[in-house]
Amino acid sequence: MTELERKYLKSLADRYPTIASAATEIINLQAILNLPKGTEHFLTDIHGEYAQFNHVLKNGSGSVRRKIDEEFGNTLSSRDKKSLATLIYYPEEKLDIMMEEEENIEDWYKITLHRLVQITKRVASKYTRSKVRKALPKDFAYVIEELITEKEEVQDKEAYYNEIIHTIIRIGRAPQFIAALSHLIQRLVIDHLHILGDIYDRGPGPHIIMDTLSTYHSVDVQWGNHDVVWMGAASGHLACIATVIRIAARYGNLDTLEDGYGINLIPLATFAMETYQDTDCSAFAIKYNTDYNTKDLSLDMKMHKAITILQFKLEGQLILRHPEFGMENRLLLQKIDYENKTVEIDGTSYSIKDVDFPTVDREDPYRLTAEELKVMERLRQAFLHSEKLQRHVRFLFSNGGLYKVYNSNLLYHGCVPLTEDGSFAGICIGGRLYSGKALYDILENCARIGYYGTEGEEKRNGQDMTWYIWAGPGSPVYGRDKMATFERYFIDDSRSHEEKKNSYYALLDREDIIAKILEEFGLPAESSHIVNGHVPVEQKNGESPIKCGGKLLIIDGGFSKAFHQKTGIAGYTLVCNSRGMRLVSHEYFESSEAAIRKESDIFSDTLDVELFPVRKRVADTDIGLDIKETIADLEKLLKAYREGSIVERGI
Questions:
Q1: Cα gap 109→153, rounded to integer Å
Q2: Exposure of 274 by Cβ count < 10 A (0-12 exposed, 13-18 middle, 19+ buried)?
Q3: What DSSP element (H or E) covers 480?
Q4: Tens digit of each residue's pLDDT (9 = 90 or more) over 165-174
C-alpha cells in the first residue's frame, strides 16, 4: 500500500469507522447496482416558453399519463384518468375547483388518495427506499413512507392503510397531502434532466424557467448561444449587453429585463426618446405576443433602434481589436453609401431601407457618442448588480458547460465544426489552433475566465471570446458563417439573409463522421449517441430528427412559438429509461389555465428510437461506475481493517 493510498483509506475510515459499517455500505451499493437505471429527459431550445416547459416537467413528457394507464388499465374511465392526471400536474389549482364542485368532498378525498398512493408506489418502485425517502416532502415524509411501503408485520394491512387515510381526511389535511403526493409523483417520473441549451430569448419567461431549474433535483445544462450571450452580459460585456436588450426589445420582452431581473432601462428609454424622437423607426417593429402592452410601442421601437445601433458599434469595435476572429465582413456601418442608400456586402451592393442614424459618425462609425457611453455604463452596472441574473448565471456555470458526456451519450447544443471533407475545423486562439473537443474545452475555459476572472486583459479577452461563442463563424454552438442581423433589419433582398451552415449539417448521415466525433470525445462509436439541438427539425415537411440510423438525434422541435409554423410541432423530449430511448413530439400547449379547466394535456406522439435488448441497470451507467469504484475502495478498507494496517474506531 502506497502512502497516498493509506491517506485516502484513512479519510474513508472517517465515514466508515468499523468493519460492520464498511461491509453494510458495500452490501447497499451492490444492491443499488442491480436496480433499473433512472429515467433521463432531454429538452432543448426552450426560448423562454415557461408555461409549456413547466407543463412538460409536470407531466413527465407524457410519463405520468402512461403510469396511470399502466396502473389502472380499464378499471378507470378515460375521463377519470384525465382528471387524475390534471390533479397530479396542478394539484393546488385543481383542488380549489374540486372543493367548489364536489358535493361529497370527503368521499372524493378518499378515492383520490387511494389512487395517488397507487401511482406513487408504481413510480417509486425502481428506486431504493433511501432515494425515495430523500425525495419525500418533510411534512408528510413518515406517513407517505408508511403508505407506499409494504408492512409484512401488519396483520390487517388494508385496515391499517385505510385508517391512515381516514385520519388524514378527518383532521383536515387531505388537500395538503394530495398536493404532496402529486409533487412527489412529478419528482419521481424524471430522475435526471438534461437541457441542451437556449433557455433564453424570444419567449417571455426565461427567468421563470431558470428559477425552476435552479431548484430542480437533478439537472445539467449544455449552453446554447442564446444562453452564452446572457452569460456574457452578466459579466458586464457591453456588446453582449446590447445584444440581450436588442433581442428583448425585438420580441416585446423588455419586461423580462425590468420586472424579471430588476434591470433599470430608464437611461436607455430617456436616451432613445431624446435622440430618436424624429427618427424613422419603421424597420424596428416589435414582434410582440398577446401580453404585450401596445401603449409602449412607439417608445419600444425607439429603444429597439437605439440599442441595435449601439450593438453594431460595439461589435465593430470588438471585431477591429480581434482580427483573428476573421469577421471583417461584419463591419457594415463603414460600407453604407448614405447618398444612394446602399450597402456593400461580400462584393454585392444592396438597397438599404434606413440610413437615418443620428449617432453614427460617417468618418468613425464605431465610435460611441458621449451620451451612448453613459447609457452603456449605466446598463453595465445594472446587469452587474442584478442579484437574480447573477445567481442564474452562476447556476449555468456550476451546472453546465458547452458539452457533456453522460451514460454513453454526447450532448451539445450546436455542432462540432467540420470542413467540407469532414475534418475537424479549427480556430486560432492565443496563437494556437484548436479543433474538435479541444475547441469546446478552450472556449468554455474562456467563458469562465470572462465571468470569474479578475479585471485585466485576460478577463477582457475571455469576455470577447464569450461574444464570439454567441455569433462567431467558428463557434460550435452557433455553427453558421455569419449572423445576418444587419441584413434582416435593413435589406429586403432575402438573398443577403442567408446564413450558411457549417459542413457538419451536410454530413450528419455519414457513419464515419459520427463515429469520428464520438471517438473524439472518448465514446465508443458502436454503443453511443449524439444528442443536440439548435437547428429546428421541420417535421411538417417530412424531416426526421433521427439521423445516421439513430446514432444522432436532433431534438429541437420548435419549443418556441416563433418556430411552430416552421416545424409543425411544439418541441421534442427525448426520454431514456431502462428499457430504451423514445422521442416524444409535443403539440401546441394552449395554457396552464386551459389544462386545469378543460383537463387538456399536451398531445404527444411517441416514437421508439432504440429498445435495449437487456434492461439497463444502474450498473450500466456513469453513476454505476462511480459506485463500483466506491465498492472497490471499501473492499480495500475492509482488507486494511482485517490486516490491522488501519484500526477500527468507535466500537
A1: 27
A2: exposed
A3: none
A4: 999 999 999 9
Give CA–CA dist 173/165, Å, rounded: 10
Long-range (24+ apart) CB contacts under 8 A made by 516-520 are: 516/422, 517/410, 517/416, 517/436, 518/410, 518/551, 520/416, 520/424, 520/436, 520/437
The alpha-helical segments, DSSP class H, found in 323-408 are 370-384, 387-399
Question: Which secondary structure element, helix H or strand E, spans residue 5, and what is its range?
Answer: helix 3-15
String of DSSP letters for 272-287:
HHHHSTTS--GGG---
C-alpha cell belonging to residue 259: 420586472
Tell me if 569 sits within 8 A of 539, measured CB to CB.
yes
Neighbours of 625 (CB within 10 A): 12
- pLDDT digit string, tens, across residues 12-64: 999 999 999 999 999 999 999 999 999 999 999 999 999 999 999 999 988 99
Tell me the helices (H) and strands (E) count for the chain, helix number first.
26, 17
Helix spans in 484-590 (H)? 485-490, 511-520, 564-567
Sign (positive or negative) of CA dihedral 263, 267, 271, 277: positive
Taking a C-beta distance cutoff of 8 angstroms, is the pair 619, 83 a contact? no
Q: Is 406 helix (H, G, I), strand (E, B) or coil?
A: strand
Side-by-side strand order, sheet with 342-345: 336-337, 342-345, 348-351
Strands (E), 237-314: none
Residue 302 to residue 274: CA distance in whole angstroms: 10
